[in-house]
Design goal:
Layout (H helix, E strand, L loop, with lengths): L7 H4 L5 E5 L3 H13 L3 E5 L2 H10 L3 E7 L8 H11 L4 E6 L14 E4 L4 H12 L1
Parallel strand pairs: 1-2, 1-3, 3-4, 4-5
Length: about 130
C-alpha cells in the first residue's frame, strides 16, 4: 500500500500558528515569508506590547519568533520572560543582529539565532519545536 504525502500545512497542524515580533518592517516581512513558505501560519507584531495583545487573544500560537531590540519599553528578552511566565507551553526563538545574550539569560527551551541567520536552521528549529 502506498502512503500519500500530506501537504505541508496538514503536516504542521500540531503547531497551528507562529507569532513574529520584529520592529523592522522588511525583516518582519522576510520572516513571515520564510515561515509561511515552510507551511506554517504566521502572525506579526511590530513590538512586544502588540505581541502580548495578540497572545492574549490567540490561544493557537505555539512559537514566538522575536527580535531582542524593540521599541516601547519591552525588549525581546523581557517578552520571552513574560511568555515563559504566562504561557509556558509556547516555544521561543530569539534573534538579534546587535547582541548575543549569555546562554544563562535565555528562558529554558528557547533558542537564539544571530542575524543574519540561516533560514534552513530557523525552519529546522521551528519544525522540531512544533513536533
Amino acid at each position: 500500500m502506498r502512503l500519500l504525502q500530506q501537504p505541508a500545512r496538514a503536516r504542521e497542524s500540531s503547531c497551528p500558528c507562529l507569532l513574529v515580533v520584529e520592529d523592522e518592517p522588511l525583516l518582519r516581512m522576510a520572516a513571515i515569508d520564510m515561515i509561511e513558505a515552510a507551511g506554517f501560519e504566521a502572525l506579526e507584531a511590530a513590538d512586544a506590547i502588540q505581541a502580548v495583545e495578540i497572545l492574549e487573544n490567540r490561544p493557537d500560537v505555539c512559537i514566538v519568533f522575536t527580535d531582542i531590540d524593540m521599541p516601547r519599553g519591552m525588549d525581546g528578552m523581557r517578552l520571552a520572560d513574560l511568555i515563559t511566565d504566562r504561557w509556558p507551553p509556547i516555544h521561543i526563538i530569539i534573534t538579534s543582529g546587535h547582541k548575543v545574550p549569555p546562554k544563562h539569560t535565555l528562558p529554558l527551551d528557547s533558542v537564539f539565532f544571530s542575524k543574519p541567520y540561516r533560514e534552513k536552521d530557523v525552519i529546522a528549529t521551528i519544525r522540531q519545536m512544533s513536533a
